[in-house]
């Protein structure tokens, strides 16, 4: 299969490579399949570009939130775990959407509504964490100061 993108040209992929969000992402329910592309050189899936298959003009930069804050602790409901086909939240992969700006430290991530993916079957969903203390906009600069404080202890 091929995905024709504006920025990356034609990308060959197999169906097993796709993330499947049956309900889409918030505001984009018409796009259910996303092709993850690694954006960092190590290809360890810390930073991904999720490219919409149904709409190749749609793409999201997502980041593994644990690389920003090792203490990030999303809590999912039993219903959400069941929907994703797991018993424990530790079996899942988490990503948060990133809004990019010219000034790197002004970039923000949404810790309140992570993307949660079962790595076994690539089924995912976006959730709203209830009473989590997380916000929709956390600047990347705020994580640098948190990590500096932890290193000083």
UniProtKB/TrEMBL annotation:
What Gene Ontology cellular-component terms does the record carry?
A: cytoplasm
Q: Name one Pfam family in it.
A: FliW
Does the entry feature the keyword Chaperone, yes or no?
A: yes
Q: Does the keyword Chaperone apply?
A: yes
Q: Where in the cell? A: Cytoplasm
Q: Which UniProt keywords apply?
A: Bacterial flagellum biogenesis, Chaperone, Cytoplasm, Translation regulation
Q: Name one GO biological process term.
A: regulation of translation
Question: What is stated as this protein's family in its record?
Answer: Belongs to the FliW family.
Can you state the subunit structure given in the record? Interacts with translational regulator CsrA and flagellin(s).
Biological role: Acts as an anti-CsrA protein, binds CsrA and prevents it from repressing translation of its target genes, one of which is flagellin. Binds to flagellin and participates in the assembly of the flagellum.
Name this protein carries in UniProt: Flagellar assembly factor FliW
